[in-house]
Write a structure and sequence with these properties.
This protein is mostly helical and about 170 residues long. The chain has 2 domains: about 80 residues, no CATH class; about 80 residues, no CATH class. Helix 3 packs antiparallel against helix 4 and helix 8 packs antiparallel against helix 9. It is elongated. Belongs to the RxLR effector family.
């Protein structure tokens, strides 16, 4: 089952049966609850899994399962103390260019960063820390801010990022 392409995983009948088994197991044995995400992420990688789950959330037949798996994956990353910078890359936000703040996963990543910072006050990271890691400080970050300022949905985030830059 895991030997298939990650893109086909959520619609594979064996995978669907496996998820039902895991759900039944977790209800029957709540103290031994197990996650579906660990073996999937170990096999395909966090970045591939996040991409597939984000796409699957847009398809009615896989939306519910994809949302559940994405929440589990975020919980796994938090429990593993993965840095927001690592998760920024796992979400492929390093490849979104000037529209990074408008990416559907950016808000999810921002919530992850806030949760991580709450759990790890000595390892706090800012938006700028992660963005600067993958985008040039002057041109890249400035372009992201400029592009986000033009969009009412991202204007507030752009102002926050701009304030961090100063």
């Amino acid at each position: 089952m895991l030997d298939e392409k990650v893109d086909d995983l959520l619609t594979n009948p064996q995978f669907v049966a496996w998820t039902k088994y895991i759900n039944h197991f977790n209800v029957k044995y709540p103290r031994k609850e197990t996650s579906m995400v660990f073996p999937i992420a170990a096999h395909y990688g966090d970045d591939a899994l996040f991409g597939v789950l984000e796409a699957a959330k847009k398809v009615e037949s896989t939306k519910e399962l994809a949302s559940k798996l994405q929440a589990e994956q975020i919980k796994k990353l938090l429990s593993s103390n993965e840095s927001p910078t690592y998760v920024f890359k796992a979400f492929n936000l390093d490849e979104t260019g000037d529209t990074a703040l408008d990416s559907p996963l950016f808000k999810t990543w921002l919530n992850y960063m806030k949760s991580f910072n709450d759990q790890n006050p000595r390892k706090k990271e800012s938006m700028l820390t992660s963005i600067h890691r993958y985008y040039d400080q002057d041109n890249g970050v400035a372009k992201i801010v400029d592009e986000a300022m033009k969009n009412p949905r991202t204007e507030t985030l752009a102002k926050e990022l701009q304030a961090e830059r100063l």
